[in-house]
Design brief:
- The protein is an alpha+beta fold.
- It has two domains: 178 residues, Diaminopimelate Epimerase, Chain A, domain 1; 160 residues, Diaminopimelate Epimerase, Chain A, domain 1, CATH 3.10.310.
- An eight-stranded mixed beta barrel has the order 1-2-3-4-6-7-8-16.
- A hairpin with a 2-residue loop joins strand 9 and strand 10.
- The longest helix is centred in the middle third of the chain and has 17 residues.
- It is globular.
- It starts with a strand and ends with a strand.
């Protein structure tokens, strides 16, 4: 069968990995582009005929090009290849894959590297938001080696600082897309929140589990997964996401009391399989729910005294994820309780790492 080749790079971004393409190397027609990406990553559940790893965390794509906006350096479209369903989803962002966008942009000549670091403003096309990436580029070259470590990834690498601005309502149009702090669905209280990623936050105990089960134990719990899916389907329209059957969002996050020094313990379904960690923007949304008085996290989250600068650690099955918030001081009651009437998050900063794994050409059938 005749084939055509497409230049690509594969990078580990955060605790995910994916294929990175220049937008100019792909068809301009969206349907044709998606077919090329499906052929490259793999259409079947094992992705035996593509470069994917038969897992949502390894079936991701970044499409990168010069920015269409004056306030950004590059445009980044995230594409989730839905394993085994021969389709893609461009609804959500992915903060892990974003961590590799700066390195890719420098490697492919979209950005000229500085010395000793380079700042890249990335327009996240999926949500229309902007994130500043700070890369280590000594002597004007991307450095992948360093001492930074993140849970869910072995070893250490050079740090990538991700500074997110203006995340509220990225996909749903509002921080609280249903307009409520708490909704009740199938007798279960939930908080629907979108501060970078649409997430439905639920108390683990309300679903009959402790919240410290392993991902494999939860993935084998068919009754739990059926209840979560019922709740998702009912909340999709209320979160301005429409019919979410088969969609990548909203994520479903079960919370319980922290086991170590975190603010909360989590088990996140993304959305049908329990994540071995937690997504970058999912962690931002969950930690935002924790500082919302009256959310389902109240009484579970172990909060420090709130200040204009705040760091919260979100526990997950393979460790913890630290989220740094810059809060609007006017939204904090500094006088007595240190409580917040409503959080105004000015900036969310996160530490990620990235590493170039391979580069070359991926071959796809000519009649993709």
């Amino acid at each position: 069968m005749p084939q055509t080749s497409v230049p690509y790079m594969q990078l580990r971004g955060g605790s995910s990995k994916g294929l990175y393409f220049l937008a100019s190397d792909l068809p301009s027609d969206e349907q044709a582009r998606d077919q090329v990406l499906l052929a490259a990553v793999g259409r079947d559940d094992r992705q035996i005929d593509g470069l994917g790893g038969a897992d949502p965390l390894t079936s991701k794509v970044a499409v990168v090009g010069p920015s269409s906006r004056a306030d950004a350096d590059v445009d980044y479209l995230f594409v989730q290849v839905v394993v085994g369903e021969n389709r893609v989803d461009t609804t959500p962002n992915c903060g892990n894959i974003l961590a590799g966008v700066g390195a890719f942009a420098v490697e492919r000549g979209l950005i000229e590297a500085g010395d000793p670091e380079t700042r890249v403003n990335v327009h996240m096309v999926n949500s229309g938001k902007v994130c500043e990436l700070v890369l280590q580029t000594p002597a004007g070259e991307v450095c992948y080696e360093g001492n930074a470590s993140i849970d869910g990834v072995p070893g250490t690498s050079a740090p990538v600082i991700c500074n997110y601005m203006d995340l509220a309502g990225s996909a749903c149009g509002a921080l609280l897309p249903t307009g409520n702090l708490v909704d009740v669905v199938d007798g279960v209280e939930v908080t629907c929140i979108d501060n970078g990623m649409p997430v439905v936050v639920l108390r683990a105990r309300d679903l009959g589990i402790s919240g410290v089960e392993t991902p494999s134990e939860l993935n084998a719990n068919e009754q739990l997964k059926a209840r979560l899916q019922s709740i998702r389907l009912q909340l999709g329209p209320k979160m301005n996401l429409g019919d979410v059957d088969g969609a990548a969002v909203p994520k479903m996050c079960l919370i319980s009391e922290p086991q170590e020094d975190g603010v909360v313990n989590t088990r996140t379904f993304i959305p049908y399989k329990c994540h071995s960690a937690i997504g970058v923007l999912g962690a931002v949304s969950v930690s935002t729910a924790c500082i919302l008085p009256g959310s389902v996290a109240e009484g579970i989250a172990r909060l420090p005294s709130l200040d204009a600068w705040l760091q919260l650690k979100v526990e997950h099955p393979s460790g913890e994820f630290a989220v740094s918030f810059e809060l609007d001081p006017a939204s904090i009651d500094q006088g007595n309780t240190g409580a917040m009437a409503a959080p105004t998050v000015l900036k969310a900063g996160l530490l990620r790492t990235a590493r170039l794994l391979s580069r070359g050409e991926v071959f796809v059938p000519l009649n993709y």
